[in-house]
Each structure stands twice: as structure tokens, then as C-alpha cells.
Amino acid sequence: MKRLFILASLVAVSATMMAQDMFEATNFATKDLNGTARYVGMGGALGALGGEISTMSSNPAGTGLFRRSDAAFTVGGVFGAKGVLGHDASRMSLDNGGVVIALPIDIDGSSVRYVNFGVNYVKNKNFLFNQDTPIQNLGVSTAAGIVNLSQSYQIAGMANEAFNKDDWRGALADMSAPLYDDNGNLTKYGLIGENYTYDPVNDADVFTGFTGFGADQANMRKSTYGGITQADINLSMNLLDKFFFGASVGLYDIDYNRESFYEELLAVPGVGNAFYDFNNWYKTTGDGVDLKLGFICRPIEDSPFRFGLTAHTPTWFKMEDLNGSTLHINDAFVSEKYYDPYRYDLRTPWKLGGSLGYTIGNYFAIGAEYEYQDLSTMKYSQDGHQTAYFRTQNDLINKNLKGQSTIKLGMEVKPTDEFSIRAGYNYVSAPMKDDAYKVIAYDSPFTETDFTNWKAINRFTVGLGYRYKGGYIDLTYQYSGQKGDFYAFDDIDLKPTEIKNNRSQIMCTLGFRF
Asked: Nearest-5° angle of CA 378, CA 382, CA 383?
């Protein structure tokens, strides 16, 4: 019934274990649709249209279309599901702030018309997510009848691994079994059972392993917050008003926080109902850098049609994790674990893209864009080397993650010279295969056994704009919808519970050209 953590048991792991895995990696390799209100209002499909500050994060050549300098500032709010664990369901944020300086090149005979320089800040990821999920489908049919699944079985399996290796460093195994550590409270309180066999030769009972008990009820509450901020330094060039080149260096800062509460009500033979809960907290900080290259071409001299090409290098992140957990049994505080900071590196995939754009006069614009990144190529490492643990996690990334496609569509209509109406759509394919699962080593310090296989994202945007002299104001609403298969613990017979990560965002940009 249970997965036996085959991959985790194949490797020797270090004394300060970590839980960086493919689920965390996808958090840092994927981005939200964010930037100026105009950029978001058109679904981000401005890779070929250009002329927008936020394009320096997607197609750096887009700033090459500026003929006047531009500065913009964007604030907004993100609204998700109801708050849990004392955290709000909504957050205000600074979404964008940037400037492009347009420098005309007034040299006779020169093919270079403009050289433009820009800097831009954007919140490219908002980790706002709240979850309150009763675990369904705990009972499964077997030849012996209905058997209830539980996290307790998974913990017992990890304790058995630790016992066989005589190695009690992991949080779940260590907190469950008292053989080598006084903190083995799940067994002491009867929530994990012990098996013995009588040895007639030595006239003694011999310990043969731990066993879990089925859960009558289980519930998970989780809150994530924080974000990834990005600053781009951009240089672009306009050649003959026909070819546009650009490059951006991206600097990233990660602040990711997660808190969770998992509780399980067990039916313990001979005892009756007993329950425990884990309160967990986890924090990741880090910084990264990447390079983005872009190109836009207007191939037909008398036509406004143009196309764009982009290539983004991997982002090289240097990261640090902190975590801890608290165990309660039958509502009484029992024990607490804290672990030292752990530092490591993550390399995200290459990203390639192509875009199309077309305008009619000054009153209509339409854009389409496609991006692709192969998430299965991400790599964890430590000080430039793959540890045994990271080799295992990188193998899981290669096996369970896949290529991710992003399709962006957007349009803008100007019924008057001052007013604009915009609409956009994004489709982002699922980052992982349907049967992806989480592997936790027996000596991992983390007590969160849950994972979610997230599906595709659909984003819809609408916006309005007003231009006055050299200034402008833009408003946009974005709705993002995503479903996921949630597993509270790793059991091949556990049916997933569907959860949703649906969010709304409103944003306002103030800007001026000079």
C-alpha cells in the first residue's frame, strides 16, 4: 500500500538534511503576470509591439521603440481565498516602478536612430495563498475490508528506515520513535505502534518495526506569503526604425514564507481515538541573476506588422532555508524542533519566446506571444556540487516536471485619442506530470508530508487607460484561476482532494513622458 521511499533510501544523506524539492523549485522558476497596468491589461502580449516599460522583463528590445523618455509607478492589491492561521486573504503591493531614457542619435549617415537605457522594478511573484482543506477519501477497499490511510503510516515507514540504518536525525522519524531519542512522543503516546516477535533462544521479545494507525479524520491549513522582486537594467537600440535589439540584466530577491497546521484523528486499537497535530514554519530567502536578450523586426517597410524573439538565460539563485515545527498530542504541547540555516543553489531553465504584433493607425493594437521553458532541466546544488540528496531531487525533477508553455494574447482599442480599452488572456500549462509525488528522506528535518500537483493557469484581464498631455493613468483588473490535486501525505492509494488557487488583482499605474 505504501510507497517505500525507494529513491530516498538509495542515497546517503548529510547530517543537516534539507527539503528543497521539485515543488519548491517550481515556485521560484515560474512568474506571475505583473508589471504596469497597461502591460497586464493586454495580457503581457507586448513582446513584438514594444513601447512599454514592462517589456524589458519579457522582450528587452521592446524599450527600443520609445522615442520619448517614460517613467511609471504601479500599485495594486491581490485578493485570494479567506485567510487562515492569522494571515489575511489580501495584500497591497508595489507592483512596478521604472524609467526609460530615450536618447536620439543625431549623426548623419548613422543607421542607429535611438539608444535607450532603462531600469525597472517589478514584483514578479506573489506567494499569497491560503488553504483550509479537510482530507477526503481516507478509506480504501482491500481484501480485508475498508482500510483508513493516514500520515501515521508514512511516519512509521520513515521510523523503520531510521531504525534499520541506526540513524535518528530526521524530525518525523525522531519525533515518532523513542528508541534512540527521548522525543519519540508519537510512540510514547500510542499514536505509532511497535511490533515485537518472541525469540525463544534468548527468551526475549525482539523489536521488528513500527506501525501506523488509520485516520478517521484529517485536516490541513496552510498559508504562504512573501514574493520575488525583480530589478532589470536594460539597454536597447533602434536601427532604421526596422530592427530593434535589447538586453536586460535581471536581479532577483526571494522572500518566501510558509506556515502550516496538520492534524490527524487516529483510531488506535485498544485505546480509542487519539489525535496529534504539527505546526510548521518554513522560510526561504535568496538572490539571483539572469540575462535576457530580445529582438524585434518590422520586416515589411510599409506594414505595421512586426515579430519578436527572446532568449532568457537560467536564473542562478543562491538561497537559504530556515524551518521549525511543534508537536501537540491530544491538545497538549509535547515537543519542538528548530534547525540551523541551510544554504544551497538553484538553477532555473532557459526560456525561449516568440511574439507577433500588429497595429492599425493609432487606435488599435493586437499582440500574441508564446514562451517555453523546460522545468525538468532545473538543478539544485551546493557550492557548485550536487550532494547525494540533490542528485536524488534532481532525478525527481527530471522525472516528474515537464516543459511549460505560456500563451499570451492581448488587444487595445482607442475610441478617442485620450481613452483606451484593453483586454488580455494567458494560458500557462501545468508544470508537472499528473502522477508526480513527493519524496521525504527518513532523516529530513521537515514535518510537512503534503504536496500539490498544480494544473494549468488561466488568466483574464481587462483595463482602461487615459492620456493627458505628457501624463497617463491606467487601471487593470486581473483574474487568475488554477486547480490542483492535493495530497496530505504520500500513499499510492490516497485519492487527491481538489483545491483551488484563484486570485483577483487590481492595479493602477501613474506615468508621464518627457
From this structure: 120
187 touches 178 (CB < 8 A): yes
Tell me the pLDDT tens digit for each residue of 326-378.
Answer: 999 998 988 888 888 889 999 999 999 999 999 999 899 999 999 999 999 99
Integer Cα distance of 93 and 111 in angstroms: 42
Residue type, 341: P
Report how far residue 176's alpha carbon sits from residue 213's, in angstroms, rounded to the nearest whole number: 13
Cα–Cα distance for residue pair 194/186, rounded to 1 Å: 11
Residue with cell 501515521: 152
Residue partners of 173: CB distance under 8 A and separation at least 6: 155, 158, 159, 161, 162, 442, 443
How many CB atoms are closer than 10 A to CB 364? 13
Classified as helix, coil or strand, 9 is helix
Which value, in Å, is the radius of gyration of the alpha carbons in the chain? 27
Q: What is the mean pLDDT of the chain?
A: 90
Instruction: Return the minimum-mean-pLDDT range out of 380-389, 410-419, 501-510.
Output: 380-389
| Separation CA 292–CA 63 (nearest Å) | 13
Query: In this structure, what C-alpha cell is assigned to residue 262?
Result: 496538520
Percent of the chain with pLDDT over 90: 66
For 144, 236, 298, 310, the CA distances from 303, given in Å and listed in that order, are 74, 22, 8, 22
pTM: 0.90
Integer CA distances (angstroms), 65 to 28, 40, 60, 235, 367, in order: 31, 19, 10, 12, 15
Architecture category of domain 6-150+213-513 in CATH: Beta Barrel (2.40)
Chain segment 96-153, per-residue pLDDT in tens: 999 999 999 988 878 999 999 999 999 999 999 999 999 888 888 776 677 899 999 9
Cα(57)–Cα(278) distance, integer angstroms: 40
Closest C-alpha among 92, 91, 22, 61 to residue 380: 22
For residue 38, the 8-state DSSP code is: H
Band the pLDDT of 15: cuts 50, 70, 90: very low
Residue 352's CB is within 10 A of a number of other CB atoms, namely 14
What is the DSSP track for 303-343? ---EEEEEEEPPPEEEEEEEEEEEEEETTEEEEEEEEEEEE
The Cβ-side half-sphere exposure at 192, using a 13 Å CA radius, reads: 25
